[in-house]
Design brief:
It is a single chain. The chain has helices at residues 56-64, 69-88, 92-103, 109-129, 135-158, 185-196, 210-220, 235-248, 265-274, 284-295, and strands at residues 2-9, 12-23, 28-39, 173-176, 201-203, 224-228, 253-256, 276-277. By secondary structure, the protein is an alpha/beta fold. It folds into 3 domains: 2-65; 70-158, Methyltransferase, Methionine Synthase (B12-binding Domains), Chain A, domain 1, CATH 1.10.1240.10; 163-295, Cobalamin-binding domain (Rossmann fold), CATH 3.40.50.280. The strands form 2 sheets. The chain has a 5-stranded parallel sheet with strand order 5-4-6-7-8, with helices on both faces. Strands 1-2-3 form a 3-stranded antiparallel sheet. Helix 9 links the parallel strand 7 (253-256) and strand 8. The longest helix is centred in the middle third of the chain and has 24 residues, at 135-158. It starts with a strand and ends with a helix. 26% of the residues are buried.
Length: 297
């Protein structure tokens, strides 16, 4: 049986997923901690691994804390529809209010991007590809998204995150795209999440020649380079870009973006020979954890 156990430490309740198993030799039940969920006040449905969400004990716990999964999904779908309409109409104040309201309780900035904004961006892309919205509407949505992320970033910058929350190195993280790539929202989202964590981030996404980026890297001496590639036709230029970087620099490189899910097996294998590859933007939490690990090495 799997259930959620609460442990109080210094008057703060922390939650763990625990599995109870019968020990035949000792003829008693044994509790095994499966996963740490974090402070009880910050738990939401995203913290519960999917394989445990249908357990009766988990459902009961979620219901008792007003975290019913179906209600959560209904809320997200409703907010996604509202967000889509506000993006199309470039209603920046309303967009920022949606973000503010969503993140002022237990939901995080990561939740906002993963559960609301990114699914809406996928929907916009699909509708544009099917001819259900015109290119002008798609551009309006993209520009509104970029402005919204800038507003969110400015709010986080204004919080004046203390130096103690920064990584142990002062070397910045560079975000960039391969030559020919014009899409920058992926990097904007990653930049936003890294800024919230207090990291120094240089976002140089634009269609820059590879040699210009290499010259910049030489001057900045970054700790990590994150490359975002959205269009599948730019995968080969990403591979060439990485190969050229590797001739001069021995720093961690993270590759991600929508194009990766369309890459050939041979392309993925080549990328993975060099660096860490993430499919799409579906594992932002894993990427942030990996970046934190690298920055603390």
């Amino acid at each position: 049986m799997v259930y959620i156990r609460i442990k109080k430490v210094k008057n703060i309740d922390y939650a763990y997923i625990v599995e109870s198993k019968w020990n035949k030799e000792k003829r008693t039940s044994q509790q095994l901690t499966k996963q740490y969920l974090g402070p009880l006040a910050q738990i939401n449905i995203n913290k519960i691994p999917e394989e445990y969400r249908n357990e009766s004990t988990i459902i009961k716990f979620l219901d008792s804390h007003n975290l019913n999964f179906e209600k959560f999904m209904e809320l997200n779908e409703s907010l996604q529809d509202t967000l889509f309409e506000k993006l199309k109409n470039y209603e920046l104040d309303e967009l920022f209010n949606i973000y503010n309201d969503y993140t002022k309780s237990v939901y995080s900035l990561l939740d906002f991007y993963e559960k609301l904004l990114i699914p809406v961006l996928h929907k916009i892309g699909d509708q544009w590809a099917k001819g259900e919205i015109d290119v002008a509407t798609e551009h309006v949505c993209s520009n509104a998204t970029i402005t919204l992320i800038d507003l969110i970033n400015q709010k986080n910058i204004n919080k004046k995150i203390s130096k103690s929350s920064l990584s142990t190195t002062d070397r910045p993280i560079i975000l960039c795209t391969p030559e020919g790539e014009l899409h920058s929202i992926g990097c904007k989202i990653i930049e936003s999440l890294l800024l919230e964590k207090g990291y120094e981030v240089y976002n140089i996404t634009s269609s820059l020649p590879t040699n210009s980026i290499e010259s910049y890297l030489d001057n900045i001496n970054p700790s990590i380079v994150v490359i975002s590639v959205t269009l599948k036709e730019n995968i080969n230029s990403t591979i060439r870009f990485i190969q050229e970087i590797r001739q001069s620099f021995n720093i961690p490189i993270i590759i991600g973006g929508n194009a990766i899910q369309f890459a050939l097996k041979s392309q993925i294998e080549l990328l993975e020979q060099y660096d860490k590859v993430y499919l799409d933007l579906e594992k932002l939490d894993d990427m942030l954890t990996y970046i934190k690990t690298l920055m603390n090495i």
